[in-house]
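Dear support,

I submitted the protein below through the web form. The confirmation email said the job was done, but the results page showed an empty box. After a refresh the structure appeared. I'm attaching both so you can tell me whether what I see now is the final result or a partial one.
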Amino acid sequence: MTADRTVTVHTTDHGPVTMPEPSWCVDSHDQEPEALRDTGHRGPQHRAEFYGHEVATAELVQDPFATGADRNTGVYVAMGYLASTLTPGELDELAALLVDYAGTLRRLARQLSVLRTGEAGR
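What the results page shows now:
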């Protein structure tokens, strides 16, 4: 069994704060100090791109000190901007990308379910 990971973040309102770090977190936590409520954890970003245009991104997130928001682990999803007239072939390629990306979102949903079940057991 591995030891629990921790990370120390520097905050503008509480100074250095050491907090548990989930195993899925890939954030280096070396950004400029920010308010404690704005600190959190980010997993790997899953991107969907179509001919260089970002269509969507999704990543595991946890904001343990958030105020007025869910502190549990979630998946942050952003849908990009794509406005283009497509040929039939390009439209088929975009559809295939979206089907593939739907699988990515389903895998993240299953991972999130397991993580939330673990959080509920604490």
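Response: this is the final, complete result; the empty box was a page-load delay. The longest strand covers residues 53-62.
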